[in-house]
Amino acid sequence: MSKVQLIYKGISQIVGGPELGLLVLSDLAHTRQIAIVCDHHMEYELGLRTGDKIITEKLLPEVLCNVNPLMTSEHYEILFNSIVDGQYKALLVNKDDLSLTPLRASDAVLLAQIAKLNIFMEEHLFKRQSVDSNTSQNKMALPVNALSVEMLRHALQKAIEDENYELASMLRDEMKNRSKES
């Protein structure tokens, strides 16, 4: 299995959408990036840890990482290995015994930030899901399969309102494909 190392770049808000944000991860060369959908609670949690005054040493994630001295990049890493129903699947990989613990994608990014763990994505998934990192743009493309059902419905409604029927058709097809798979 070939994998690509990622770094956390920051949070972007979804304009005009529900209270969701995007966690932006880039490859080490900063040429391609992916976005992971997160809720406003995760935006807050990551914001606490990236602000000027970090006061999180007594919060549960930090306490748990401090209690477990093995929670370091020497022993653990994060791996994104698939996307299902618009959500990336993340694993906490124990490098000592190769055990895998599934966790929510946004929680995986938070844990990686706190414990300073390396983040990886399977190469084929990264190639399929990533977009060019164009720093001059204020917009980021998001693959349709990385949208939740709720986000697909919202985007479909907006496409119909904007009379963008080609996009509406594509979104409807994605929703149908997901309902067939369920």
From TrEMBL:
Per UniProt, residues of the BFN domain are 3-133
Q: What is this protein called?
A: Bifunctional nuclease family protein
Check the record and name the InterPro entries matching this protein: BFN_sf, Bi_nuclease_dom
